[in-house]
Design a protein that fits this description.
One of its GO terms (molecular function) is UDP-N-acetylglucosamine 1-carboxyvinyltransferase activity. It is an enzyme of class 2 (transferase). The protein is an alpha/beta fold. The chain has helices at about 20-30, 50-60, 95-100, 110-115, 135-140, 175-185, 200-210, 245-255, 270-280, 320-325, 345-350, 380-395, 405-410, 415-420; strands at about 5, 10-15, 40-45, 65, 80-85, 90-95, 115-120, 145-150, 155, 165-170, 190-195, 215, 225, 235-240, 260-265, 285, 290-295, 305, 330-335, 355-360, 360-365, 375, 395-400, 425. The protein folds into two domains: about 5-20 and about 240-425, Alpha-beta prism (UDP-n-acetylglucosamine1-carboxyvinyl-transferase, Chain), CATH 3.65.10; about 20-240, UDP-n-acetylglucosamine1-carboxyvinyl-transferase, Chain (Alpha-beta prism), CATH 3.65.10.10. It contains 14 helices and 24 strands. Bound molecules: uridine-diphosphate-N-acetylglucosamine and phosphoenolpyruvate.
């Protein structure tokens, strides 16, 4: 199993290209199930989750082809992925495939909308909480589906097709918003989603669905209205920049010092996290090509944060921010409100000398003047990268094991950081 070795102490200077967002790419790929024509996605990141989802989609009958190329500076550009679901050959999404990735459960919406039936295993994904699927079930039932849970599978049927309705989520859910929005595009009549997720990835999916012929208004606000159509057609869509990757590298520079241009990054996708970073003493400037992030030798100021749905501080940056706060000049409080078990990085950061204690949903971090490198274990995707950020600033060598988590969501992490002066390498065993 591969591990990542980081020798801390180097500043980061240079350019980091920001990839297309994993969390937009996955629902966009799933949207290909809604049409028998080709959906072409550009700026697709090379990630384990993307490869995994192509397997799941091909099991349903989706043909796909991938093209990637290098630009003039020998920099890899995002891939172009063409997906064609001319015929759906299987409406079952099996446990062996779905258990590896939470987002694969979302195929339930398009399969039901197009084929009027689906049998989808209950999902897996990052072990950061119980992560139930009740909002999906209630939402699809509101659109007229009969639903049964059978031996770990959600079995949905709507023999006469789905019918638009009002769907109100008790709590904001990104995945349930994606799924109901996709299902509603082919339902009869109007669907209104209340308390919809406003995340940029929902807007990106809505834009792609609109390009495919869907009638959707209000994506990016808490109320989305979808007027069902008879069929969707093929389209070309470029995946939005990854705001979590952007925030992660911005925090890495805030940690090590230096100056980085995050090429292709968009400030409007992560205002709250950038505001917090500015309060820590990091300078962030918008430029025509991306975001410039700079921190000189001055210390890191402690800042309290609470994770919230967009436009609040994202839970997917909580672990990385905690890593940064381990070196702050004082105490900070980090409150996680989205997932009940998303502090697994705390005990690993402690191995590096971080001083953190947990009080319910809040982690209280007392900044230390130095971290010391040590062997640590990645527990989930964002936790893994928080250990890399801590390792970049720790004295000596940090070895992060179980990096397969990292490969789910960070494209060429070692390569991007090495080019900016970090001492980081993958060790295969
Ligand atoms: C692939 C992808 O895009 N993953 C993101 C997505 O996950 P995901 O879509 O799984 O997360 P949700 O937004 O659905 O989860 C938000 C909260 O709602 C709860 N909930 C959700 C559905 C449901 O039926 N019942 C229920 O109780 C969850 O347990 C959680 O407490 O949004 C999360 C929140 O921004 C991010 O951390 C993940 O990176
Ligand atoms: C939690 C994440 O992914 P998933 O929802 O696929 O587990 C994530 O991207 O941080």
């Amino acid at each position: 199993m591969d591990s990542i070795k980081v020798v801390g102490g180097a500043q980061l200077n240079g350019i980091i290209p920001i990839s297309g967002a994993k969390n937009a790419t996955l629902p966009l790929m799933i949207a290909s199930l809604l049409t028998d024509e080709t959906l072409t996605l550009s700026n697709v990141p090379r990630l384990r989750d993307v490869a995994q989802l192509t397997q799941i989609l091909s099991n349903h009958g989706v043909d796909y082809s991938v093209n990637g190329k290098r630009n003039g500076q020998d920099e890899l550009e995002g891939q172009t992925l063409s997906l064609t679901a001319r015929e759906i050959v299987d409406t079952t999404a099996p446990y062996e495939l779905v258990s590896k990735m939470r987002a694969s459960f979302w195929v339930i919406g398009p399969l039901l909308a197009r084929m009027h039936e689906a049998r989808v295993s209950l999902p897996g994904g990052c072990a950061i909480g119980t992560r139930p699927v009740d909002f999906f079930i209630d939402g699809l039932a509101a659109l007229g589906a009969d639903i049964e849970i059978d031996a770990g599978y959600v079995v949905v049927k709507a023999p006469g097709g789905l019918v638009g309705n009002r769907v109100e989520f008790p709590k904001v859910s990104v995945g349930a918003t994606h799924t109901i929005m996709m299902a509603a595009t082919l339902a009869k009549g109007e669907t209104e989603i209340i308390n919809a997720a406003c995340e940029p990835e929902v807007v990106d999916l809505a834009n792609c669905l609109i390009a495919m012929g869907a009638k959707i208004e209000g994506a990016g606000t808490p109320t989305i209205r979808i007027q069902g159509v008879h069929r969707l057609h093929g389209a070309h869509h470029a995946v939005v920049a990854d705001r979590i990757e952007t925030g992660t590298y911005a925090m890495a520079v805030a940690m090590t010092g230096g100056e980085i241009l995050l090429k292709g990054a968009r400030a409007d996708l992560l205002h709250s996290a950038l505001d917090v970073l500015r309060q820590t003493g990091t300078e962030i400037t918008e430029t025509p090509t991306g975001l410039k992030v700079y921190r000189n030798g001055n210390g890191i100021q402690p800042v309290d944060i609470t994770t919230e749905p967009f436009p609040g501080f994202p839970t997917d940056l909580q672990a990385q921010f905690m890593a940064l706060m381990t070196r702050a000049g004082g105490q900070s409080r980090i409150t996680e409100t989205i997932f009940e078990n998303r502090f697994m990085h705390v005990q690993e950061l402690a191995r590096l000398g971080a001083q953190i204690h947990i009080d319910g949903r809040t982690a209280i971090v007392d900044g230390v003047s130095a971290l010391q490198g040590a062997p640590v274990m990645a527990t989930d995707l964002r936790a893994s990268v928080s250990l890399v950020i801590a390792g970049l600033a720790a004295e000596g060598e940090t070895s992060v094991s179980r990096v397969y988590h990292l490969d789910r969501g960070f494209e060429r992490l070692e390569d991007k950081l090495t080019r900016c002066g970090a001492q980081i390498e993958r060790v295969s065993s």
